[in-house]
Design brief:
The complex is a heterodimer of chains A (152) and B (788).
Chain A (H helix, E strand, L loop, with lengths): L1 E6 L2 E6 L6 H9 L17 E4 L2 E4 L12 E3 L1 H4 L6 H9 L8 H14 L5 H7 L9 H16 L1
Parallel strand pairs in A: 1-5
Antiparallel strand pairs in A: 1-2, 3-4, 3-5
Helix pairs in contact in A: 3-6, 4-6
Chain B lengths: L1 E3 L1 H21 L1 H4 L8 H7 L12 E3 L2 E3 L5 E5 L8 H13 L6 E5 L2 H6 L30 H4 L22 H30 L6 E4 L2 E4 L4 E4 H9 L29 H4 L16 E7 L6 E5 L10 E7 L15 E6 L2 H10 L2 E4 L9 H11 L5 E6 L2 H6 L3 E9 L2 E2 L7 E6 L4 E6 L3 H10 L8 E6 L13 H9 L7 E4 L2 H6 L4 E2 L2 E9 L5 E11 L18 E9 L13 H16 L4 H10 L6 H15 L9 E8 L9 E9 L5 E11 L7 H21 L4 E2 L2 E2 L18 E7 L12 H17 L17
Parallel strand pairs in B: 4-5, 9-20, 18-19, 23-24, 27-30
Antiparallel strand pairs in B: 2-3, 3-4, 6-7, 7-8, 9-12, 10-13, 11-12, 14-24, 15-22, 16-21, 17-18, 17-20, 22-23, 25-26, 26-27, 28-29
Helix pairs in contact in B: 4-7, 7-8, 16-20, 17-18, 19-20
The chains are: A alpha+beta (152), B alpha+beta (788).
């Protein structure tokens, strides 16, 4: 059946079953491959997107449950990589391989929208994404730097 | 599944035009004349024109092409997987070429071209990089066959040529070390030919020219030109004496040794960087695969009829056990796959399909506990005496005190974030494989052998890997995908392993490992005899790490090893070598038994030797002790652990780490702060990459120590996803990490990830100091650390 999804401000009519996880609709139907598959059980966070401004793990989110809602993916964060979180990420060179970083960036952006000046404790409890290269040190630096830039 | 919107349709058309115009610029049209319109959207933006078999911008040599607008393209023969290697390779070439670093772009080199084209003679010179020579031009021996090829049991060891134009397209530290000189020469050869071309245009002696940032200057006449302007001529100008080309010596380096951000970072933060999982081809089908969960097993039966009418299903196929000659002798399984119009449809049908397996009877009941028992028992009768100095047996008899300890480590997966995948298009005459791959030359051979298409007609289009940690986790992702795709000739098939498939069947593991240490101390607490016995799965790596070149001074030292053969596939895992951790834990145990400070105890034991790396090791300890405020008072519930990495000789990396550890009374442990001192030799290529790897190693060691415990039961790996293991995240990572480098007069060893070892034993000793509990069998999550 056709589902109407609003992704990055654009309306897509997607022919799929409502139970299909949003992750695979984004990647296979719409062609937005920045959102990654890591675990499929909402544990690793590589698939994190925003739904109505909240971080959401798209691998366990049925596409049918977010019809008409405001979905934001890494591709929609900015047109040219100049969102403050992206700028901060580049400034501290946070990524190693980069695979988990779309999810990290989306999780961090949602955190900063909620808490413009997050404490270490808040960063640790909110950013539960997995990175197997071990980018956590620079991810923390980047979140703090982005917070500074967004407050300025 | 299909998606459509008006805007999407027009975007797609625009993207196609964008691709065609980009293809025209770079010659992609000729390359892909076979008619594969790539999804070039990401490729164009990220600068990855895949497999440039033909270049229409002037190609100076196989690694370097320069466009008229001075854009320099470096072809990278190794795959980026987080270690910064593509940036490092580009830096090395640019150090010699001296182009404008801001005008650099990169693409992966073509494994197909490597099959067809021989390496030029000048590039076959071997580096004079013996451990203590800093001169890259020093004479070397004749090229020897890298061990990794010799070890390919069951196949011709020379099956993969490494004298093709890109030499050894193998992404690991050893290959990188052996190739750096080659990259230096590629940059130098190109530079000299560009200068010769400019000299010919101006009719002046080449010696009068200089170059900086890609601008060539003739000082006497004030004339300037650029690389882009003379590139076409240089491409036609052979070097008159290529054997005489010399690489710069390290004292002349300007770019190398400076911190450079990763070239792929800007494409990561926009989500555009293309991983294997992101390959999209017109008409592409998706496949989900499932192999027999017991390694070496196969399919007994399956019921395709049960799922063939499920949404989107194209076909159901069976694939055999991959030829062990194509999987480095590893024993993987045969399986089934569903091919469908989307991955979700493929996976849903596969999960719903009844499958019965042929389980190898001899291992049907194998489990981790029994395997560990076998390892522990094996050490009662050492198989090999690796080191025997002095006389351990007579010395231990006169010890004032004897200390014994047994350590174990479980099987551990690589678990890269990107699940195994590959996209394959098979026709009768040609095979195309899109993949992130640590060993594309071997995968190309698989593409040929599994289809019967000659190697010259197999094309590998490299993508970046979402982590590696050992040849794609060493699993047969490419082999599965090729066997599946050849059932649908003429259509690309994008195969993805589920996370569970990737961890349970598609990887090799860091081997189970056990060690028994015994030491005799004199009346002052100093060791007069040490014995280290280790045991590991056959095929495991690092059984003697840190022990065969034992760095500490002890007059009687014996080290023995035992290998026990299990059916679990094991191989190198991000240089994680448990014996190195055990050694440092045991030194801590000796220091505490002697009631001495673990830092001073190590220092004294090093000073009792005259080994080549002694001074660097002492320097690392002193530096890190100072950085960490070693010895200064700490609140209750906190302690510092210290650890040293490195052997006494050779090129192994020297580093020391202090971990500031806290444990709450309820037993929640954490590393609060990490201080690391590391010897980079006379220079690191990219110190920023070294820092990032040190930081990454700290995570790896912490996660291993806390949470990684992969369990075999009934012959199969039953640990399958992130909900039960690999759970150390931001909340376990130290908030503060301090790194300092020091230099020494030798080639540095590229093992910064060894911070995983140093953090592990330092963490364990911190826990001991706080709680009195000495943990010798990780992971910590299996232990109660409460105290007080």
């Amino acid at each position: 059946m056709a589902l109407n999804l609003v992704v990055n401000g654009q309306l897509y009519s997607v022919d799929t079953e409502p139970a299909t996880p949003l992750l695979w609709v984004l990647r296979d139907s719409i062609g937005l491959t920045g959102t990654k598959y890591g675990c499929g059980i909402s544990e690793c966070g590589a698939c994190t997107v925003h739904v109505n401004g909240q971080a959401k793990r798209s691998c366990v989110t049925p596409a049918g449950s977010v019809v008409g809602q405001d979905i934001l993916t890494i591709e929609g964060l900015s047109s040219d990589g100049t969102h403050p979180v992206q700028l901060a990420w580049k400034e501290v060179d946070a990524p190693h391989c980069g695979y988990c970083q779309s999810g990290m960036i989306m999780a961090a952006t949602a955190l900063l929208q909620k808490r413009p000046n997050p404490s270490d404790e808040q960063i640790e409890s909110e950013i539960t994404n997995a990175c197997r290269c071990g980018s956590y040190y620079r991810v923390r630096l980047a979140i703090k730097r982005a917070a500074e830039m967004m407050r300025a | 599944m299909t998606a459509k919107s008006e805007k999407t349709a027009s975007t797609a058309a625009m993207q196609r035009r964008e691709f065609l115009s980009a293809a025209a610029v770079v010659g992609g049209a000729a390359v892909f004349g076979f008619g594969i319109p790539l999804d070039a959207r990401a490729a164009v933006r990220t600068g990855q024109y895949w497999s440039p078999e033909i270049s229409t911008v002037p190609e100076i040599n196989a690694w370097i092409a320069i466009a008229p607008d001075d854009t320099v393209t470096y072809r990278i023969g190794v795959t980026e997987l987080g270690q910064g290697i593509l940036t490092a390779v580009a830096m090395i070439m640019n150090e010699e070429l001296q182009a404008d670093w801001k005008k650099i772009r990169w693409e992966y080199a073509s494994a197909n071209r490597d099959v067809k084209e021989k390496a030029p003679a000048w590039s076959l010179k071997t580096p004079g990089k013996e451990p203590y020579s800093t001169d890259p031009n020093a004479p070397g021996g004749s090229p020897s066959l890298p061990a990794v090829y010799r070890n390919r049991e069951g196949s011709d060891p020379r099956e993969v040529s490494w004298t093709g134009v890109y030499r050894r397209m193998m992404t690991n530290g050893g290959a990188f070390k052996s190739l750096t000189y080659y990259y230096h020469l590629a940059g130098a050869e190109a530079r000299e030919r560009l200068l010769l071309a400019a000299a010919a245009v101006w009719n002046v002696p080449v010696a009068q020219l200089s170059v900086k940032d890609g601008i060539i200057t003739h000082a006497a006449t004030g004339r300037t030109t650029s690389y882009g302007k003379v590139a076409a001529k240089a491409a036609q100008t052979p070097h008159p004496n290529p054997e005489g080309i010399k690489a710069k010596t390290p004292d002349q380096w300007k770019l190398l040794g400076t911190e450079q951000k990763y070239l792929h970072t800007p494409h990561v933060v926009t989500g555009e960087l293309m991983f294997g999982l992101d390959v999209r081809m017109p008409g592409m089908l998706y496949a989900a695969a499932k192999a027999c969960p017991v390694w070496g097993g196969d399919v007994k039966s399956y019921d395709a009829n049960a799922v063939k009418n499920m949404p989107g299903v194209h076909s159901v196929v069976q694939f055999p056990i991959p030829d062990r000659g194509l999987t480095r002798a590893q024993r993987f399984s045969g399986g089934v796959a569903v091919i469908a119009d989307s991955y979700w449809h493929a996976k849903s049908a596969l999960d719903a399909m009844p499958v019965e397996w042929l389980i190898p009877a001899d291992v049907a009941k194998a489990n981790s506990a029994d395997m560990m028992k076998a390892l522990l028992a094996s050490m009662d009768k050492p198989e090999k005496v690796a080191v025997n100095q002095g006389n351990f047996d007579t010395a231990i008899a006169r010890a004032a005190k004897v200390v014994e300890a047994t350590y174990t480590a479980p099987h551990r997966p690589r678990a890269r974030m990107e699940p195994g995948n590959a996209t394959v298009l098979v026709t009768d005459s040609r095979v195309d494989i899109w993949i992130g791959d640590q060993s594309p030359q071997e995968t190309l051979v698989s593409g040929s052998k599994l289809t019967g298409v000659p190697r010259e007609n197999v094309y590998l289009h490299l993508a970046t890997l979402g982590g590696g940690f050992g040849r794609n986790g060493n699993g047969p992702q490419a082999e599965h995908a090729i066997m599946i795709a050849k059932t649908v000739k003429g259509r690309p098939v994008h195969m993805i392993w589920s996370r569970e498939e990737d961890w349970n069947v598609g990887t090799t593991y860091g081997a189970q490992c056990a060690a028994k240490f015994k030491a005799g101390l004199d009346a002052d607490g100093w060791p007069i005899a040490i014995e280290a016995r280790t045991a590991m799965d056959t095929g495991g790596s690092g059984i003697s790490a840190g022990l065969d070149h034992f760095p500490y001074g002890v007059p009687n030292y014996r080290h023995t090893t035992n290998f026990v053969k299990f059916h679990v596939p094991v191989a190198v895992r991000r240089n994680t070598f448990p014996p190195q951790i055990f050694r440092e834990s045991f030194i801590d145990e000796l220091a505490h038994a002697a009631k001495k400070d673990p830092y001073q105890y190590r220092r004294e034991l090093l000073m009792r030797t005259n080994f080549p790396l002694r001074d660097a090791q002492v320097q690392a300890l002193d530096m890190v002790a100072k950085m960490s405020g070693w010895g200064s008072p700490l609140p209750q519930g906190q302690a510092r652990g210290i650890s040293l990495e490195g052997e006494h000789d050779g090129v192994s990396g020297v580093q020391a780490q202090v971990a500031l550890v806290s444990v709450t009374k309820q037993g929640s442990a954490r590393v609060l702060r990490s201080d690391i001192a590391m010897d980079t030799g006379f220079s690191a290529v990219n110190p920023l990459a070294v820092k990032k790897q040190l930081e990454g190693g700290v995570y790896w060691g912490i996660d291993d120590t806390f949470s990684v415990d992969f369990q075999v039961k009934d012959g199969r790996m039953v640990t399958s996803n992130y909900d039960t293991v690999l759970t150390a995240r931001m909340d376990k990572y130290p908030r503060e990490v301090n790194i300092q480098f020091f230099k020494s007069e030798r080639w540095g060893a590229s093992s910064p990830e060894a911070s995983m070892h140093t953090v592990a034993s330092a963490l364990l000793d911190g826990i001991y100091q706080i709680t009195g509990k000495r943990i010798r069998d990780e992971p910590l999550n299996n232990h109660d650390l409460s105290w007080g």
